[in-house]
Amino acid sequence: MRGPQLDELVGAYPNYNEEEEERRYYRRKRLGVLKNVLAASAGGMLTYGVYLGLLQMQLILHYDETYREVKYGNMGLPDIDSKMLMGINVTPIAALLYTPVLIRFFGTKWMMFLAVGIYALFVSTNYWERYYTLVPSAVALGMAIVPLWASMGNYITRMAQKYHEYSHYKEQDGQGLKQRPPRGSHAPYLLVFQAIFYSFFHLSFACAQLPMIYFLNHYLYDLNHTLYNVQSCGTNSHGILSGFNKTVLRTLPRSGNLIVVESVLMAVAFLAMLLVLGLCGAAYRPTEEIDLRSVGWGNIFQLPFKHVRDYRLRHLVPFFIYSGFEVLFACTGIALGYGVCSVGLERLAYLLVAYSLGASAASLLGLLGLWLPRPVPLVAGAGVHLLLTFVLFFWAPVPRVLQHSWILYVAAALWGVGSALNKTGLSTLLGILYEDKERQDFIFTIYHWWQAVAIFTVYLGSSLPMKAKLAVLLVTLVAAAVSYLRMEQKLRRGVAPRQPASRGPSTRCAVTAIWRRTTRTRATRRASMGTARRRRRRPRGPGPAPSPPDLAAGPAPTNRRKGATGPRSSEGSPGPGTQPPCSPASVYHVSGRGDPLRVPSCLQRLLSLLPHIGDAPPRARVTSGLQQPPPRRGGALGTPQPRTGVRKHS
């Protein structure tokens, strides 16, 4: 009874369906990719929401004179805040020098995790607000901004490519592993994933207002007190909230309540870290990570600068700059210069919620790109912003008047629509134009670095009049739209872009070098052992004629010239009368035909190495450069005869 029971336990499953199991396997893979996209999107939303909410609450509290004097005395909070904002806005300027190196060194997922951890570190320093805690954490946060969002964009693009791979696994099995899928085949999945990511990301502006709505608004003065000295708003204003009252808090919040709010924000930041760490899978396979690093750290440092040669990237730079301008204008220009200046600080949170909900809903409008031409979403977003900029250029709301507040909410929501179309369209376009996995981290680094440069420019020009800000915004928008349409025209004409050479893995890579050295050593050992065996088995006397070569298997490789008389030498050291390693051709006489078939010996060597290209070292006998052994002498039925007088080879 033990035999049948054992067969039933370890034997083949009788109802096993290979196709069904394969389908289930790739369905689980696709669900894993969707899980990665949702986890990365939720992690980015929570991280940015906590950062914006804490920074907004911190700046409002530190702006109040009474709060500064009672809580911190003569510690100089305004100076600390200015240094902190400088660290956040100035540090990303140097991000182009280190971001690609960090992403390649840590990997895409771990770079996301470390950057989210730095955001959490910035939140934790607000428990003890001092110069030596706030300013260093702000500098560290500024260093992590570009790596975080560059790795996020790269991660979403890689997930779209993986989803396409798992959805079309049957086509790839038919084409072979070496053949790449058609260019742009992952574009529909990329469009969907970018829409999901940015719908979550823009919700972070609404999440950031929760501490303001449920906590800080209960301590604020109304607009009649805060806007008492404000004379002009909108297009007639200068700087940021000129004439705004220096006391905005009716009562000071208790320290215990502040600690509770900061603890909740810290818990949310820690949850974002856990989401990225536990639910986000790797963007690349381990061998792909090794290949991406093995191009050399010097090349990794230089490649972002070399990509400037590509005309597509140069034409998109104005759009990158405008993308940074419009986000900061939504938070400072519309929300402060038009909103708070006219309807009070207590309605700031609701204006940003309107912007957030409009942008989040409009991110899903990017799915229309599945049926519309590619330039439509970007041009539509630019058109919405162009119309709003013209309207804002001639509108100056009256301070302390609430009748026009609905116009502010509509303007904020429409600006969010344009921002969503801009962000979704740009990220999708970059993922389509640069789908090579060895270029994506460089491209998204350049994109977010130009955004950081634009934000730094807005930080420097924060004291300019509102009309000057609107004029710069308008000129940049028109230049970006014209430059983008020019790029699309060049692509339709078939102008080839100039890209830096994409080098393969270097031979100095440890894993690759060890594998090649092991393969070469084993191949040489087997070749020498095969030569010794053939010498021992060499027949004495005349034997049967050799059989004609098999045409299906191809001609037997050899390195002897026709009519050569010298002794055969080992591979790499040809003896006299042998063919050089890369001679023009070797001659083979095919049975049944009089014409010789000439095959280059370099091609012979390449074909002989093909069986050894794989995940494991070769197990078959290497016959490169060696003549096929003659058949063993035997009887009529090929029975081998016993050998006598042959000395054993030690």
Automatic annotation (TrEMBL):
Entry's Gene Ontology BP terms: adaptive immune response; defense response to virus; innate immune response; intracellular protein transport; toll-like receptor 3 signaling pathway; toll-like receptor 7 signaling pathway; toll-like receptor 9 signaling pathway; toll-like receptor signaling pathway
Statement: the UniProt record of this protein carries the keyword Kinase: no
Cellular compartment(s): Cytoplasmic vesicle, Phagosome; Endoplasmic reticulum membrane; Endosome; Lysosome
Membrane topology: Multi-pass membrane protein
Disordered: annotated span: 493-589, 612-650
Protein family: Belongs to the unc-93 family.
Function: Plays an important role in innate and adaptive immunity by regulating nucleotide-sensing Toll-like receptor (TLR) signaling. Required for the transport of a subset of TLRs (including TLR3, TLR7 and TLR9) from the endoplasmic reticulum to endolysosomes where they can engage pathogen nucleotides and activate signaling cascades. May play a role in autoreactive B-cells removal.
Protein name: Protein unc-93 homolog B1
Organism: Macaca fascicularis
Lineage: Eukaryota, Metazoa, Chordata, Craniata, Vertebrata
Gene coding for it: UNC93B1
